[in-house]
UniProtKB/TrEMBL annotation:
It is an enzyme of class 5 (isomerase). Keywords: Carbohydrate metabolism, Hydrolase, Isomerase, Magnesium, Metal-binding, Phosphoprotein. Transmembrane segments: none annotated. GO terms for molecular function: beta-phosphoglucomutase activity; hydrolase activity; metal ion binding. This is Beta-phosphoglucomutase. Gene3D superfamilies: HAD superfamily/HAD-like, Putative phosphatase, domain 2.
Length: 247
């Protein structure tokens, strides 16, 4: 292992955004809760069963493309909505309308609250680049660039593959490995020479399915065992924990 905690053959690092580089997973979870609770209240009245911002978020929406998250959660409640399309207004009762309602909520939270990166993640990004490795961010969010700019870390990443990229290239989202594979290819490496850094279980599944050289689970919420079960080679609470981890 190198002094940045990776096998010596790894030359590219592929980072998820929310929960790995920035604490925006909490912002997304809050926006999903606001969106789904409003929808369920409108549908079922005041006796509705609320969206759980931890359990439901982790199980059904974390790391998934927006529309997939809507479908997954609604299916868990045996609710079906028409698909609609990307241009649906946020008050339309469709999969895409509900997704756009969530997107409006998260953009408002980012605008009013701002975004700061995890300090340990900044340290690790700088250490990785100082060691000569290439870096990419791989996110299902279409707002990825806005978050990177707000957090002041866009310059530390050579490649960005996000929700907009996936749509343009027709790449399926996590748990499929395609977005990570695309980022590695954009950096000039195959999967065996790349490491994946993820906090979401579907991200672990993507790392395992893509046969990447190393998969790092980032445990911000106490799910280390689940991250390992889903394919993590190692689990850390903060990326800075990898610095000097040569054993």
């Amino acid at each position: 292992m190198t002094e940045i905690g990776l096998p010596s053959g790894v030359r590219a690092c592929l980072f998820d955004l929310d929960g790995v580089l920035t604490p925006t997973a909490l912002v997304h979870a809050a926006a999903w809760k606001e969106t789904f609770d409003d929808f369920l209240r409108e549908r079922d009245g005041d006796g509705f069963r609320p969206f759980d911002a931890t359990a439901d978020y982790d199980e059904y929406v974390d790391g998934r493309p927006r529309a997939d998250g809507v479908r997954s959660f609604l299916a868990s409640r045996h609710i079906e909505l028409p698909e609609g399309d990307d241009e649906d207004p946020p008050d339309k009762q469709t999969v895409h309308g509900l997704g756009n309602r969530k997107n409006d909520a998260v953009l408002e939270k980012i605008r009013t609250q701002g975004v700061k990166p995890y300090p340990g993640s900044v340290r690790y990004l700088e250490a990785v680049r100082a060691a000569g490795l290439r870096t990419a961010v791989v996110s299902s969010s279409a707002n990825c660039r806005d978050v990177l700019v707000s957090a002041g870390i866009e310059h530390l990443l050579d490649v960005r593959v996000d929700g907009a990229t996936a749509k343009e290239r027709h790449l399926p989202g996590k748990p499929h490995p395609d977005t990570f594979l695309a980022a590695a290819a954009d950096l000039g490496f195959d999967a065996a020479r790349a490491a994946v850094f993820e906090d979401a279980l579907v991200g672990m599944d993507a790392g395992r399915a893509g046969h990447f050289g190393f998969v790092v689970g980032v445990d911000r919420v106490g799910q280390a065992a689940a991250l390992r079960q889903h394919g993590a080679d190692t689990v850390v609470e903060d990326l800075a924990d990898l610095i000097g981890a040569t054993a």
